[in-house]
Design a protein that fits this description.
- This protein is α/β, with parallel strands linked by helices.
- The chain has 3 domains: 1-26; 32-257, Alpha-Beta Complex (2-enoyl-CoA Hydratase, Chain A, domain 1); 282-440 and 478-507, 2-enoyl-CoA Hydratase, Chain A, domain 1.
- Helix content is 39%, strand content 17%.
- The strands form 3 sheets. Strands 10, 11, 12, 13, 14, 15, 16 and 17 form an 8-stranded mixed beta sheet that branches.
- β14 (408-417), α15 (418-423) and β15 (433-436) form a beta-alpha-beta unit.
- α4 (117-133) runs parallel beside α5 (152-168), α12 (350-365) packs parallel to α14 (390-403) and α16 crosses α17.
- It is elongated and about 100 Å long.
- The N and C termini lie far apart (80 Å).
- The relative contact order is 0.07.
- The model is unreliable at 1-7 (pLDDT under 50).
- Bound molecules: hexanoyl-coenzyme A.
- One of its GO terms (biological process) is carbon fixation.
Length: 525
């Protein structure tokens, strides 16, 4: 009897060794994706493999993989003989600087990273977990799109992902990295996420490729021109940033995650900071030039306010007349929206309104306080803007600011004219603390335009007109009329801006503001 037990124990030990060996072999095969040859060709294009990308993105040894052995169920077109483990996407979770994120990384070496029903199911599984557990989803896209052999099953799979993108919107941050082809309806999953990052020269996004474009419209265009990183960061604004290569893109996403809360149930992380909050910046006293028509760089103000001068800019290459991005004050994340006098005098137009509105809505959804730095001569006039609907697009920013219930602190550095004064997080849109520098000018419009309208009868008399302009400036080219009415809470010294703004946000940390109940609003689109 005792001998039998020993014997069966030995057998068991032997079997276990085999089982472990098999597991190890199966894992090894799954890790090879589409095989060494295809991996080599991926690397030859300057791209990392799906697994290398995950390794770089996550903290060392933190990746927990799911569904490594999932295979597709397709039996058409000889697919039953081609069942690579993992089905072209690596999924799971891990940490970035110790904070949890869910991740999927499409493997182009496996059937071109194409999306089958099971491939989609793997992505949906981690999206569901991310929503339940409150952690961001980062998708690394490198795919030939819907798996052609699977037909409608594959389209259905995409639909399931889209629906989850919609449900996760405003619940957990969603980040899309485009690191290879992304074509057809496949672009609509990234389009519904919060941020899209592309890699220069190796990634593209379009609804229909150059061949279809040629057939339908007779236009001849390369894939790069149609949907490369430059097109989408500079022209279409579909993407938020473009990076030189996979490594840089991944490093920047790690940096971004550090600014964000893991979900709408949590506050953004507080980082240790080593920068005196009362730091005085005397150079800010002379940032605004004497000549009101001379531009200056608003980025200088942002970096001089921010902890350690660190500004993470979003959409840096699009609508340069407005700046959007994240800074930290006393270690806490703050979203910044700032008119940029260096570009088109900081005017609001369709592109800048859309860019800023989306950013404001992201901040509000994820409890990130908003700092608005204002130097705006108004909305850009003209038929181009009106025909393209500047009224509705401008209203997006107005609406976004007005519906945002996060702490809102505003500083007017120079011009705040007309409708743009109201739009840019004015007191009237329930901003909490509104500051102005002594150089602020808050009026319906500039002196010249105003004089031409209200003193039309004197237009032939240059002296009288000059006097009217001087009178107008005397009355309005200052922050005190607004301050007298309480529209500006305090006129502050430029040099002490960092301290005043940090203290304002500190006082607002427990802010609670509720809006009337509704199913959802109807923001102008
Ligand atoms: C199945 C695919 C595939 C796909 C690529 N492959 N795309 N397999 N379904 N959609 C396979 C190829 O057969 C090949 O297999 C391998 O992936 C690599 O592809 P190559 O063509 O050799 O690579 P490359 O020259 O780099 O070209 C990449 C590509 C091209 C531009 C993405 O493969 C391509 O045009 N694919 C089809 C794209 C497409 O039309 N997809 C459908 C879009 S519509 P082997 O075995 O040779 O390695 C869509 C609808 C979504 O996605 C709708 C959502 C609602």
């Amino acid at each position: 009897m005792a001998q039998d037990t020993r014997h069966s124990g030995a057998q068991k030990g032997h079997a276990m060794k085999d089982i472990l060996q098999e597991l190890s072999e199966r894992r090894g095969a799954a890790r090879l994706g589409g095989g060494q040859k295809r991996l080599d060709s991926q690397l030859a294009k300057g791209k990392l493999s799906a697994r290398e990308r995950i390794e770089l993105l996550l903290d060392e040894e933190s990746f927990e993989e799911y569904d490594m052995f999932v295979t597709h169920r397709c039996t058409d077109f000889g697919m039953e003989n081609q069942k690579p483990a993992g089905d072209g996407v690596v999924t799971g979770w891990g940490t970035i600087n110790g904070r949890m994120v869910y991740v999927y990384s499409q493997d182009f070496t496996v059937l071109g990273g194409s999306v089958s029903a099971t491939h989609a199911k793997k992505i949906c599984k981690i999206m569901d977990m991310a929503m339940q557990n409150g952690a961001p989803v980062i998708g690394m896209n490198d795919s030939g799109g819907a798996r052609i052999q699977e037909g409608v099953d594959s389209l259905g799979g995409y639909g399931e992902i889209f629906q989850r993108n919609i449900m996760a919107s405003g619940v957990v941050p969603q980040i899309s990295m485009i690191m290879g082809p992304c074509a057809g309806g496949a672009v609509y999953s990234p389009a519904m996420t919060d941020f899209i990052f592309m890699v220069k020269d190796t990634s593209y996004m379009f609804v229909t490729g150059p061949d279809v474009v040629k057939t339908v419209t007779n236009e001849q265009v390369t894939a790069e021109e149609l949907g490369g990183a430059s097109t989408h960061t500079k022209k279409s604004s579909v993407a938020d940033a473009a990076f030189e290569n996979d490594v840089e893109a991944i490093a920047e996403v790690r940096r971004l995650i550090d600014f964000l809360p893991l979900s709408n149930r949590q506050k953004p992380p507080v980082r240790p900071f080593f920068d005196d909050v009362a730091r005085v910046e005397t150079s800010l006293d002379t940032l605004v030039p004497d000549n009101p028509n001379q531009p200056y760089d608003m980025k200088e103000l942002i970096t001089k306010i921010a902890d350690e001068g660190d500004f993470y800019e979003i959409q840096a290459d699009f609508a340069g007349n407005i700046l959007t991005g994240f800074i930290r004050l006393e270690g806490q994340t703050v979203g910044v929206v700032a008119n940029q006098p260096l570009v088109l005098a900081g005017v609001l137009d369709i592109d800048s309104s859309r860019k800023a509105a989306r950013f404001v809505r992201f901040c509000d959804a994820f409890e990130i306080p908003i700092l608005s730095l204002v130097d705006v001569p108004g909305f850009l006039p003209g038929t181009t803007q009106e025909y393209r609907g500047v009224i509705k697009h401008g209203a997006k920013l107005l609406f976004a600011y007005g519906e945002a219930t996060v702490p809102k602190v505003t500083l007017i550095t120079r011009k705040a004219y007309g409708g743009a004064y109201v739009v840019m997080a004015s007191k009237h849109l329930q901003a909490d603390v509104n500051y102005a520098w002594p150089t602020a000018e808050i009026a319906v419009m500039g002196a010249k335009g105003a004089t031409e309208i209200i003193h039309r009868a004197d237009m032939a008399d240059a002296d009288k007109i000059a006097q009217h302009e001087a009178d107008y400036n005397e009355r309005f080219a200052n922050p005190f009329v607004a301050a007298e009415r309480g529209f500006v809470d305090e006129v502050i010294q430029p040099r002490s801006t960092r301290k005043r703004i940090s203290r304002a946000f500190a006082a607002l940390r427990s802010k609670k503001q509720t809006m009337p109940w509704k199913k959802h609003n109807n923001i102008p689109l």
